[in-house]
Design brief:
By secondary structure, the chain is of the alpha+beta class. It folds into 3 domains: 52 residues; 127 residues, Immunoglobulin-like (Sandwich), CATH 2.60.40; 108 residues, no CATH class. It is 40% helix and 23% strand. The protein contains 8 helices and 13 strands. Strands 1, 2, 4, 6, 7, 8 and 9 form a 7-stranded antiparallel sheet that branches. Strand 8 and strand 9 form a beta hairpin. Helix 1 packs antiparallel against helix 3 and helix 4 runs antiparallel to helix 5.
Length: 336
């Protein structure tokens, strides 16, 4: 009921804005130069860190995509995330709208760690994104070496088209007398529109509530996804990498839905650390799941090709894990 009232209120506000809004006086300048991407790269020791933004000129309130990418040899470990998001979700003058830390993957003879962020700001002028710092551990020699690499800040321009086009704004006119009969007509039209929009929103909400089925429990959804994966015959066609990618995704999303752990967005080492610090899974289940995820990473990232029967055993392990961890009905006390 509260959702319906919110929809009706929103529809009424939109109608009133359309009725009372003045004609638009601002427009995008035709001679504005096209924006271009900008990036900065820093290298220290075995690590190369690059920060890229998709535009060096944006408008206020426009999303800005920033990607951070670190490259390092196989025996060098990068600490994620590359750029920490403060508690106030602000980086300098920019709001953090999205923050995605992706799993590392092979890139030739090195591995790549990436992080993607979406930012926006309502400040104008020449602004600066601070440099990013990557922390790494070099295990290539007999002595483990820790270090950091930091990029230079990135400069960009944030424009406000209201300010740029203010020269084209016309001065306001003096007061105009409006007959009282016009107000009556506006009130009548506005009332009819508000009533009609409320009825339309009500019907749409009711139809949507009837048409959307309730979500499936995580264990039932995962079992159905495993059935669909098995029926595709990827193992028989020796498509090992897509098979293990799908299989691990199904397990990770099941764990997220069943236990509330952020499994899909974490790398395997991060997820295993989270799992050990949680009491959601028993120790044997943790060991079994950890071994499976490490083998899956070898297939996904190192191009390892296991035997077909190993893939079938991995599917059986996933089914058994889901059955063992699905919710059980609470025991009821019998009364005499």
């Amino acid at each position: 009921m509260s959702r319906l009232l919110n929809h009706i209120l929103l529809a009424r506000l939109l109608v009133m804005m359309l009725l009372l809004a003045p004609p638009a006086a601002c427009s995008r300048p035709a001679d504005a130069p096209p924006p271009s991407p900008s990036e900065t790269t820093a290298t220290r020791g075995p690590v190369e860190l690059t920060v890229t933004i998709d535009s060096d000129t944006i408008e206020t309130g426009t999303p800005l995509t920033m990607e951070l990418r670190a490259l390092a040899p196989l025996d060098v470990e990068i600490t994620m995330p590359l750029l920490e998001v403060p508690d106030d979700v602000m980086i300098a003058d920019f709001h953090v709208l999205e923050n995605e830390v992706r799993p590392d993957y092979p890139d030739g003879e090195r591995r790549a760690w990436t992080q993607r962020m979406v930012l926006d700001t309502f400040e104008t002028g020449s602004l600066q994104l601070p440099g990013a710092t990557a922390r790494f551990t070099d295990r290539r020699g007999e002595i483990e070496v820790a270090g950091t690499v930091t990029t230079d800040p990135l400069e960009l321009t944030v424009r406000s088209f209201v300010d740029e086009d203010s020269a084209g704004l016309r001065d306001i006119r003096g007061p105009v007398a409006i007959p009282l009969t016009t107000w009556g007509l506006w009130l009548l039209v506005g009332g009819v529109l508000l009533l009609g929009s409320g009825l339309v929103v009500r019907q749409v909400v009711r139809r949507r509530e009837r048409s959307v089925p309730p979500p499936l429990p995580p264990h039932i959804l995962a079992q159905r996804q495993l059935d669909a994966l098995e029926s595709e015959g990827l193992l028989e066609r020796r498509c090992f990498q897509p098979y293990y990618v799908r299989l691990t995704d199904i397990l990770r999303h099941y764990i997220e839905g069943r236990f509330g752990m952020l499994a899909p967005t974490r790398t395997t080492p991060e997820f295993l650390d989270d799992m050990r610090s949680s009491d959601a899974l028993l120790a044997p289940q943790q060991d079994q799941l950890g071994g499976f995820l490490r083998i899956a990473d070898l297939v996904k990232f190192a191009r390892h090709e296991p035997a077909v029967d190993e893939g079938e055993e991995a599917l059986h392990m996933a089914r058994t894990f889901i059955v063992d961890t699905e919710p059980r009905p609470e025991p009821t006390e019998e009364t005499d």
